[in-house]
Amino acid sequence: MTTISGYEYETVTTSPVTPEELQLLKASVLFGPADEAALRQAGEVLANQIEDVLDVWYGFIGSHHHLRAQFSGPDGEPVSRYLDAVRGRFGQWIWDTCERPWDEQWLAYQNEIGLRHTPYKKNRTDRVESTTHVPLRYLIALIYPITATVRPFLEKSGRTADEVDAMQESWRKAVILQVALWTRPYAPGPW
Fold first, then answer.
1. What's 6's DSSP letter?
2. What residues contact residue 84 under an 8 Å CB cut-off, 6+ apart?
3. Domain extents for the chain?
4. Helix, strand counts (H, E) of the chain
5. What is the Cα–Cα distance from 21 to 155, expressed in whole angstroms?
6. Which residues are within 8 A (CB) of 87 and not within 5 positions of it... i.e. 6 or more apart?
7. What is the dihedral of CA 149, 27, 116, 101, to 10 degrees?
8. What 3-state DSSP class applies to 64?
9. What is the dihedral of CA 72, 54, 109, 180, to 10 degrees?
């Protein structure tokens, strides 16, 4: 285990994605220095609202059977300890997205996140019996709710409309970029 900012990360191997490829992905979503600054600002705004954001996200997932199933056991009932463990990591992911440097260690953990959605590692971290994988289509489709639902929390900051727009767009770009990274383990051929 590696500890960063008080959170313990499972030791992961290096990412097959190089820092140079990350730079190309950043360019592909038009993520630049202004976005880095806006994302840090979003991190400051969201820091005390993470549990509230998670409540919204869990409410959304819980209200859709096909999404809730990804956290359910063979009996179809949600596995509470699995939901709780994932919630902690999901909250940490919000902070990591905004505050951690996007370096080789961050890239390695993005690879780990991707793997945990696939048959290679889903259920192993938390030692649960649930679906074998999260269908890639849901991972991609969830980009919208994970980005759109953050805006009301950014607006609570009292920042100007332009600042909120900048934070929202940097968050959206960051989520799209990370989902692109998470798709790598799903890719049967050249990623």
1. T
2. none
3. 2-186
4. 10, 2
5. 33
6. 54, 58
7. -90
8. coil
9. 90
Instruction: Count the alpha carbons within 13 Å of 118 in the hemisphere toward its beta carbon.
Output: 13
* The model's pTM: 0.91
The CA distances from residue 24 to 99, 100, 166, 181, 189, in Å, are 21, 19, 21, 12, 19
**Domain 2-186 is found in CATH 1.10.490.10:** yes
Both tokens of residue 67? 């999404």
DSSP code for 151: H
Q: Which amino acid is present at 55? A: D
Task: Give DSSP secondary structure letters for 179-191.
Answer: HHHHTGGG-SS--
Q: What is the pLDDT along the chain (191 residues), one digit of tens a residue?
A: 554 444 444 556 789 999 999 999 999 999 999 999 999 999 999 999 999 999 999 999 999 999 999 999 999 999 999 999 999 999 999 999 999 999 999 999 999 999 999 999 999 989 999 999 999 999 999 999 999 999 999 999 999 999 999 999 999 999 999 999 999 999 877 88
- The label of the residue with tokens 């997932």 reads 61
One-letter amino acid for residue 159 of the chain: R
